[in-house]
Amino acid sequence: MAAFNVVDDVSLRAIVAAANRASSPVIIQASVKTAKSIGVGLLTAMFDAAVSDSRVPVALHLDHCPDRRVIEDVVAAGWSSVLFDASNRDLETAIRESREVAELAHAHGIGVESEIENIVGVEDGVGSDVIAHAYSAQQVVEAAQASGIDLIAPQLGTAHGVYHGRPKLLPERAREFRALSDKPIVLHGGTGLTTQEFQAFIEAGVSKINISTELKMTYMKSALASLRRCEQTQEWDPPTLFNEIGGAVETMAVGFFEIFGSAGRA
Ligand code: 13P
């Protein structure tokens, strides 16, 4: 299933529209940066309004969050799931804290994605460009069982952001996880992969694929084109800008639903 990091109401509504257009389920996610800049209360209200007449299932997820206070806020607000990012902790601390987060979230019916080995790249200010913690698949699965989390986000050779060379992708590692555990596997760093690369990961058993940078680039390039037109025509109409950005983001998302095979499946 596709999971898109939205940045505001324009991108949020565009993803909901795309999911309905493609009849695909979708996960809307927000970085801690976005959750803090909009505010958890307003973001929750925006989401509730945007999905009120949706014909397809839409979940609201908190992406990479090492800060347990923000997790407590979104759990209280009734989001669908959170990614507790413990990849900056040592293994023992990561397991203990992941268990505490899972107990809190599960008490409210909320799912927990877990990252304990760091996925390379910085996502909205969270993460690192160097591998700090790397474990065997067996160790990651044992940690997931010990902490009781629901989804595993392992290192699969991808990175957040734009790739400057071709990454050494590890679909065979996703397959190894599937053989060791029933817990769904999450692929981070989706921007820049080819259709064949996505399909190799999906065939290997990946369940959730995260897209952030592609949405930001689509959003900003569309805004730039729209503003250039305003400059030429000297007509400065904000709703036209919002509609053009929303249309571009919607088209981008429909493309991913088709590649991932979730179109028509809601
Ligand atoms: P990209 O920014 O590479 O699309 O990665 C998104 C992601 O994994 C968000 O957690």
TrEMBL record:
The keyword Methyltransferase is annotated on this UniProt entry: no
Binding annotation for Zn(2+) 2: D85, E115
SUPFAM superfamilies recorded: Aldolase (SSF51569)
Binding site for dihydroxyacetone phosphate: G161, G189, G190, T191, N210, I211, S212, T213
InterPro entries according to UniProt: Aldolase_TIM (IPR013785), Class_II_FBP_aldolase (IPR050246), FBA_II (IPR000771)
Keywords assigned by UniProt, alphabetized: Metal-binding, Zinc
Residue ranges crossing the lipid bilayer per the database entry: none
Cofactor(s) the protein needs: Zn(2+)
Superkingdom to which the source organism belongs: Bacteria
Cofactor details (free text): Binds 2 Zn(2+) ions per subunit. One is catalytic and the other provides a structural contribution.
GO BP terms: carbohydrate metabolic process
Protein name per UniProt: Class II fructose-1,6-bisphosphate aldolase
Source species of the chain: Brooklawnia propionicigenes
Lineage, broadest ranks: Bacteria, Bacillati, Actinomycetota, Actinomycetes, Propionibacteriales
Encoding gene, per UniProt annotation: fba
